[in-house]
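For the sake of transparency, this paper describes our internal protein records without simplification. Such a record has a labelled line for the sequence and another for the backbone structure tokens. Nothing more is needed to write down the fold, since each code stands for a local backbone conformation. For reference, a complete record is included directly beneath this paragraph.
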Amino acid sequence: MSEIKKVVLAYSGGLDTSIIVKWLKEKYDCEVIAYAADVGQEEELKGLKQKALNTGASKVYIEDLKEEFARDFIFFAIKANAVYEGSYLMGTSIARPLIAKRQIEIARMEKADAVSHGATGKGNDQVRFELTYYALEPNIKVIAPWREWEFTSREELIDYAKKHKIPVPVTKKKPYSMDRNLMHISYEGGILEDPWREPDEKIFLTTVSPEKAPDKPKYIEIDFVDGIPVKIDGKKMTPYKLIATLNKVGGENGIGRVDIVENRFVGMKSRGVYETPGCTILHIAHRAMESITMDREVMHLRDGLIPKVSELIYYGFWYSPEMEVIKAFIDESQKGVTGTVRLKLYKGNCIVVGRKSENSLYSKDFATFDRDSVYRQADAGGFIRLNALRLRIRAMLNK
């Protein structure tokens, strides 16, 4: 790749990408443009531009993608009820295609020869970044340092950083990695690689432990329009502001901690610890909204797609033809999922305590056990016998 003269690096300022700026310049003798996507990292972005320039980047892009992230990516995952392996709301997974998309756009503007990222050769992120790169720019050159360089551990990276006086936020005493955005914070690696070890309380940044949460429950109301959350307690908010607000109130009440061992796309199992306060609330509220507004067969058909859409997000196939088809179906299924959900937040629990909608398919007149004029209970006998017919025939033949 000696023809590479300019590279756009997805830069976070963490251990890996801090070193990669220096490594790319040494390895390829090229210009390195650092690109950081603001998807809600908050304080992690402070001083990032100067740090990248000090490390050797010729130019730094810091792009505010928070509203786009919330509107076009997080809200879709909420509408789809996307949960990987029953527990993981995929905050890291769903941010990658957006970050990579903007990276390709910057590479085009800068007429760069290649793009680069700091994902390891064992993880999922390398797949998510590169599938997006190739889907949007089929002939782009990709440099993945973790698959090329001589380093074999993060301890060696720390030593390299010290040698070249590169400041990094990780030490040998705190060797786990962290990824933060608007949707969640993830922790993995290092001391967390022992699945029997309980995470130290001090690692958590956005949630209090349920034991230390307030003794008084917090009630909130969330309004949805066609499956999209638009208001909290009657106050209209932008997508970013709405999630940020729920992150705060959820974190204060110990909502959204998850500790799982998940199956990575590349084949091995990995332990991850996550804080997802706001979107845990949204996920529960959205399902409650659907319970009174969505047709049964449409709901069951959509629910059958949850494992698939979750896999597509987790594996990195956001820009794939199958995802385009699923998105169209999800959007259609959400028409009429409109109304208000009331929730009680208490010591790590998010409990649905009310739901209402002008589009409600629930009717007390139909569901009541009291006398009604719509449903004749005697009709159920014929309904049951017809549905039992194949079971009776099978039993007769077996005898």
In short: The mean pLDDT is 93. The chain has three domains: 6-173, 180-356, 370-398. The CA atoms of residues 37 and 396 lie 66 Å apart. The chain has twelve helices and 14 strands.
